[in-house]
Specification:
Structural class: alpha/beta
Number of helices: 11
Largest sheet: 6 strands, mixed
Oligomer: single chain
Number of strands: 10
Shape: globular
Length: 331
Amino acid sequence: MQPIQPETYGAQRTAPVPAQRSAAPTEGFAVVDVETTGLGRSDRVISAGVYQLDPDGEVTDHWYTLVNPQRDPGPVWIHGLTAELLATAPTFPQIADAFADRLRGRVLVAHNALFDWNMISREFSRAGLHAPVEQRLCTMVLSRDLRLPLPNGKLSSLAAHFGVQQRHAHNALDDARVLAEAFRPSLHLARSGGVALPLQNCVAVTDLGEDEPAAPNRASWTGAAYRQAKKRPPCPYPNPGRWEDGKPLVQGMRVAFTGDTSTDRELLEDRAAEAGLHIATSVSRLTSLLVTNEPDSWSGKARRAREVGTPVVTEDAFLQLLREVAPHPGA
């Protein structure tokens, strides 16, 4: 289960995606799909499927497990996994070692990979472990890099383009199989066309959100819930200007957010404000930084950032920058 934004998929790239583009590890790839109780940071994995591929994209093994979330299974109408079915399944700590063995030394490949990575990373963190993944690859981004003529960002569209048959949508093993079969020709197209793989470094998630209340209705799972903007006191520091790559954030910088984030947006904004940053509700020439996991999307803020040259970083990179925010020079 993954949040998809099909309306942004077909946009032509006008700015590069800030990714770590390099060769894949010699172990190859782990194509992953997880089904979950929902899309929030307090939601849990209820099934996981992994297809292991060699460096050329050929399948070498596959693995599947149900996972008892020890809570309500969420939208059964989507994934079909009832509380009764999951009651006798192992918990995540019981399957963590087996899951880790399938991931170790490989690039994690998923469709909307940031979502899968964050759900997996949180589960390992809850178990007191670290997910053994250093890099991930999103097939939505790779499809855009290859300029595949897809109508949207759905897995079904990617599968149809390569003639891959879906047998059981929202089944973690079958979705992983479909993605593995679609990723192999994508990998070959990238290599033959000289297109670098859009690899992203994986930052372990420690924000588990366990104090969040359970989602009351479907809107919470689909991302349709509306959150009114939080009123904040004005930032006490004047804007020191734009952020520069390789340098720390500075108190007073104006930071804007757009698109889906794995960490609750309000929590991200709270952390930024506590660090002395100004939360901007729009992007202008005065904006110091835009935080988004879809830098090439056609949201209003992303378009404006490209127009005026506002620096853009991903959520992972922003969380790293938040660790050391420099004091304002006039403080």
